[in-house]
Amino acid sequence: MTEAREPAGPHARRAPGTPCWVSLMAHGLSATEEFYGELFGWEFRPGPQQLGPYVRALLDGHEVAGMGQLPPDRRLPLAWTPYLASDDVDRTAEAVRLCGGTVAVGPLDAAEAGRIAIAADPSGAVFGIWQGAAHPGTTITGVPGTPAWNELVTFETESVSKFYATVFGYEREPVVSADFDYVTLLLGGRPVAGLHGVGHGLPRDRGPHWKTYFEVADVDATVLQVADLGGQVVRRPQDSPHGRVATVADPEGAEFSVIQNPH
């Protein structure tokens, strides 16, 4: 188990490209708060309302994630979305467009917290871009109930990894394997996210998408609790080289993974 790590000071800047926040857009915000509050021990307080009702989830007083409410007429896929740090959201958004991606929302100011954009890579996977001001992002990691890893599930990694490397300056470390298409994205030699090409194994109803892993103390107990709270088990617990892992969905169908003792 890693120690809880906090950025140096409340306004610490993350290196551009670092996943710095995760956010979920849900239909029923209060029921969603109840589910994750029970599962991860989160408490909630209001956040910036520029994009509609929004709360920040806290663990022991530390901000770990965000949740917003989708307008009733929006039929967007329900998914946890990672936000990647930027020193200049407007410039990053322009790079996204130049490299074949799209910018769906913003860039716009989120009150005094910072500046935000929501974009999609050329394959359609949605991610956020965050330029922190008063709000730097997740302020605690390495303990149960915090984001542990973000992974893009996509058709193939070669072209899409070029997109992320060009926009955010990542180094790329592919797995050398004929039957496993995986690229780790690094900043300064440190792994920060993964890209997993699954070809025709991609769910038809989802398309390419980012997946968030949350650390938990006991994956098997968490999976039972998810079912008790009205969620679903998508992939049962199994041991991986990175720790015991399972994929679940909340009662509205938003999928996420849980991992025990991540390396």
UniProtKB/TrEMBL annotation:
VOC domain location: 18-132, 146-261
Superkingdom of source: Bacteria
UniProt-listed Pfam families: Glyoxalase_6
Source species of the chain: Streptomyces alanosinicus
PANTHER family reported in the protein's UniProt record: CONSERVED PROTEIN, GLYOXALASE-RELATED
Gene3D superfamilies (UniProt xref): 2,3-Dihydroxybiphenyl 1,2-Dioxygenase, domain 1
Regions crossing the membrane: none
Protein's name according to its UniProt entry: VOC domain-containing protein
